[in-house]
Every structure is written in C-alpha cells, then in structure tokens.
Amino acid sequence: MNPTARRHARQYALQAMYQWQLSGTPINEIELEFLVHHIKQKTDVDYFKELLHGIPGECDELDSQMTSFLSRPINELDPIELAVLRIGVYELMKRLDIPYRVVINEALELAKKFGSVEGYKFVNGILDHVARTLRIDEIKAHKKS
C-alpha cells in the first residue's frame, strides 16, 4: 500500500471526524461530501471509509482506552486532538498490521499539521500509554531487536 495514499486517507478521516464530532451530521452524509467534494489527492479511499465508519461505531471503547491517561475530561479535549487520538487508538486496537510506531508517528504528523502548537506532545503521551497497554508484546519484541 502506498504510504502517501494512506496518509491522505488519515488526513481526510481526521477532517471528517472533526466535522462529525462538532456537527453530529450522519457519517454517510459526511462520507458522500468528502468523496464528491474534498478527496482530490491520491488517497486510499477504502481506508478512509474504514476509519470514518469504524471510529464512530467504536467510540466508547476507543475513549475508554485513553480515559485513564487523560489529565482532563474527554469532553474538554481540543476537537482536533480528540479526533487524532481516536484515529490512533483505533489503529492500535484494530489494525495490528500497522506497527505501533507508525501509528504514533502518523498521529503526530496529523496533530502537528492540524492541531495546536503543543498538541502533538499531548497526543504523543496519550498514544504512548495506550500502545504500552494494547501493543505490549510488539513493543517488547521491538526493544529486543
């Protein structure tokens, strides 16, 4: 899979998740809007759709994976940072084919591009804790190599 196409899928998914979080617009409407009007670059559209449909359906579970590591209630998080975290936690939980370091790096890139100046540090800390919970065997194997 082309890493650039996957990166674009994450970027569009982030923008779509942000819209969903703030407006509550049905996911199918947001998907159609993005497919028709926004997605212009070479994009892994299937992955965009997986994230867009998978994350809202798993929101409670995703949020519960990170809640204990948050310094404030989830509803007080910056909406961009929350969307980035949900994408990262989703990938850590559901996409074991993507190495945890790639998941975290991609989330940091999204946070740097779309989030607040220091937001990526917050995202990094939370995803690092979640990865140590969900991907402990992979992390241990990586440290041995």
The global form is: globular
What is the oligomeric state here?
single chain
* Strand residues, percent: under 5%
Low-confidence stretches: none
- The N- to C-terminal Cα distance equals 25 Å
Q: Summed up, what is this model?
A:
By secondary structure, the chain is mainly alpha-helical.
Characterise the protein shown here.
The chain is mainly α and 145 residues long. The chain contains seven helices and no strands. Helix 1 packs across helix 4 (79-94), helix 2 packs across helix 3 and helix 4 runs antiparallel to helix 5 (100-114). The longest helix is centred in the middle third of the chain and has 23 residues, at 45-67. The protein is globular and about 45 Å long. The model has no long low-confidence stretch (mean pLDDT 94).
Core attributes:
145 residues, globular
List the SSEs and their pairings.
Elements (H helix, E strand, L loop, with lengths): L2 H21 L3 H12 L6 H23 L11 H16 L5 H15 L4 H16 L1 H9 L1
Helix pairs in contact: 1-2, 1-3, 1-4, 2-3, 3-4, 4-5, 4-6, 5-6
